[in-house]
Design goal:
The chain has twelve helices and 18 strands. The protein has about 400 residues and is α/β, with parallel strands linked by helices. The strands form five sheets. Strands 3-18-17-12-11-8-7-4 form an eight-stranded parallel β-sheet. It has a four-stranded antiparallel β-sheet with strand order 5-6-16-13, with no helix packed on it. A two-stranded antiparallel ribbon has the order 1-2. Helix 4 packs parallel to helix 5 and helix 7 packs across helix 9.
């Protein structure tokens, strides 16, 4: 008989009843999802990023749907920390939500100011430092694009005394370098990842679809999940003891499982809530259902399991490396049929692309027989034997 499923997890020093959280920027500043989800049942609610003062954000339009997600250029609009403490936080605490407050700034000192205002905030269990914002002291380059600037922002946020989680951008050549700077500066957890830089243009109007114009927007949703999984995987390999929260395209329970296998201690559900505000609860139920179906009694056993796998070779349900060459390319001598390669099975011996048998090898030359002269045509191959004629048809009586 299977034991009772435990969904409890930890993110650094923070203990959570389950590993499913909301993502910053997609579920509002307060209890906007409360009509659809019992917020107390989620691991935590991560609110939209807040600055020390109010910020209007970017001009409209701010959101554009893409085939596998969406682009946004909201621009970190928010009421400021003080107004949020007074107007939005009480609605979350009244519903029993565990709150992760997200902060941002345009200068290092802005992170310090926002963090100091959150000291002692009721119900706030951690501080998510969003460094994917323009650093005015560095030619408006994102904090997250520089190890030094990321470390400075995280260190400044330490004024809150809360556990620090740092949300990093995938738009860098070496994410582990930025992550190392964040951890060295005092971050307990890495939140991986923020949006990918993208753009959309309306061909009919010959104009940008987002109000940010040439600034483009951030791509989120299922399209970026493989990027997020890779980021989680690589940072887990580089920092085995760090806490990691995976975010990017999680919309089903199995997506959460994939993130955790890559190394995430918890996941955040973001863009999926725009399509269905009940998405975080559905992901949680799907995760639990997957664990029961696969005999997992403790969700923590999933964390980083792919790194502990003994056999990392390609399994039979995926194509081998040579299949990428076979499928959709011209046939080469000895290549396997495309249908065989796509299934990852070895080609039958002595077959070409499409299953045509190769020509027979030439007969061996007798010892001492002269070989063909240079430049001469090879000797003709013997003609294949003619098939036997069919038997004469018998006349019908």
């Amino acid at each position: 008989m299977r034991g009772q499923l435990s969904l409890r997890t930890t993110v650094g020093s923070v203990s959570l009843p389950n590993p499913v959280l909301t993502a910053s920027g997609t579920s509002g500043h307060g209890a906007e999802l409360a009509p659809y989800v019992d917020l107390s049942t989620l691991g935590a609610v991560t609110v939209k990023s807040l600055a020390a003062t109010a910020w209007d954000g970017n001009p409209a339009p701010r959101v554009h749907e893409t085939p596998a997600g969406m682009l946004n250029s909201v621009g970190l609009q928010g009421p400021g920390v003080q107004a949020w403490l007074e107007r939005d936080l009480p609605a979350l605490t009244e519903r029993g939500a565990r709150v992760v407050a997200s902060i941002w700034g345009r200068r290092v000192e802005d992170f310090g100011r926002a963090a100091a205002m959150l000291v002692g905030a009721p119900g706030v269990i951690a501080l998510e430092v969003n460094v994917s914002c323009p650093n005015l002291d560095d030619r408006s380059r994102m904090f997250a694009h520089s190890p030094h600037a990321t470390g400075d922002a995280v260190a400044a946020a330490g004024l809150s005394g809360l556990p620090l989680w740092v949300k990093l951008s995938p738009n860098v050549p070496d994410l582990t370098e930025i992550a190392a700077a964040a951890l060295h500066a005092g971050a307990e957890a890495l939140v991986l990842v923020n949006t990918l830089l993208g753009m959309s243009i309306d061909p009919a109007r010959r104009a940008y679809r987002l109000g940010s114009g040439p600034g483009g927007g951030g791509l989120s949703g299922p399209a970026i999940r493989p990027v997020a999984v890779r980021a989680v995987h690589d940072c887990r390999a580089a920092f085995p003891d760090a806490a990691i929260v995976g975010v990017g395209g999680v919309s089903r329970g199995v997506d959460a499982v994939e993130m955790m296998l890559a190394g995430a201690d918890a996941v955040e559900v973001g863009t999926a809530t725009f399509r269905d505000p009940r998405a975080p609860a559905k992901v949680l139920r799907g995760l639990a259902r997957w664990c029961r179906w696969h005999g997992v009694d403790d969700v923590r056993t999933l964390v980083g399991a792919v790194h502990r796998s003994v056999d990392r070779t390609t399994t039979s349900d995926t194509a081998g490396p040579t299949a990428d060459v076979w499928v959709g390319t011209a046939a080469a001598p000895g290549a396997a049929p495309a249908s065989v390669a796509a299934e990852g099975r070895p080609a039958p011996p002595g077959t070409l692309h499409g299953g045509t048998p190769p020509p027979p090898p030439p007969p061996p030359r007798p010892p001492g027989a002269p070989g063909p002269l240079a430049g001469s045509a090879p000797p003709p191959r013997p003609a294949p034997p003619r098939p036997a004629p069919p038997p004469p048809e018998r006349s019908q009586p």
